[in-house]
Amino acid sequence: MSSDISICRYLDVERTPRLDEEIDAIFFEASNTKSFESDAARSAFRERWLGRYLRDDPQFAYLAMSIAGDVVGYLVGTIEDPASRPSTENTIAAFREVTKRYPAHLHVNVARAYRSSGVGGRLIDTFVADAQRAGAAGVHVITSAASANVRFYNRNDFQEIARAGPADALVFLARALT
Ligand SMILES: CC(C)(COP(=O)(O)OP(=O)(O)OC[C@H]1O[C@@H](n2cnc3c(N)ncnc32)[C@H](O)[C@@H]1OP(=O)(O)O)[C@@H](O)C(=O)NCCC(=O)NCCS
Q: For ligand 1, is residue 110 a contact (CB within 6 Å)?
């Protein structure tokens, strides 16, 4: 039940190796990429989608915790425009015009056993409130247009703004905060 789950700030939770392992386990289980050509490739993948957010923007990281103290979901985010980073990936470059209006962005994952009970929505609400308070004009996510999570984002007031990539397979979903 979602009400048995607390949404905590990452900075308020004691940082233990077990905590990091639990976050990593959810990240790798939820990721579409399952095999890596090397440990370095696996680390770079984690760094791109999770590690740098925890390190550089821990104030915008949140954990969903069970009563027993297990991590069952997380959200990492930032209010910085990703297109303003010096080493911007191709994906972001394709959406450069729209990230200006919706600079904040996030990555959210919930452990399989806890999905579809509102945990992801609560994580989004918490980040959106903080991003709005911090003055972000808007927030976006980029996902596969065919993914089941598009409906999740639509329900959380993210609307399609643009598409890009081969066969327009990537969708930019955004929500205005001002
Ligand atoms: C997408 C996700 C974060 C949503 O969290 P959640 O706690 O399940 O979401 P909520 O309970 O607040 O909202 C439920 C809605 O999420 C969507 N959803 C449910 N299971 C999903 C799944 N396995 N994958 C994608 N979306 C899913 C559905 O639209 C669902 O609505 P429904 O139950 O009426 O069908 C979570 O399902 C998840 O981690 N999925 C796999 C990884 C993923 O897609 N992450 C987002 C990367 S961009």
A: yes
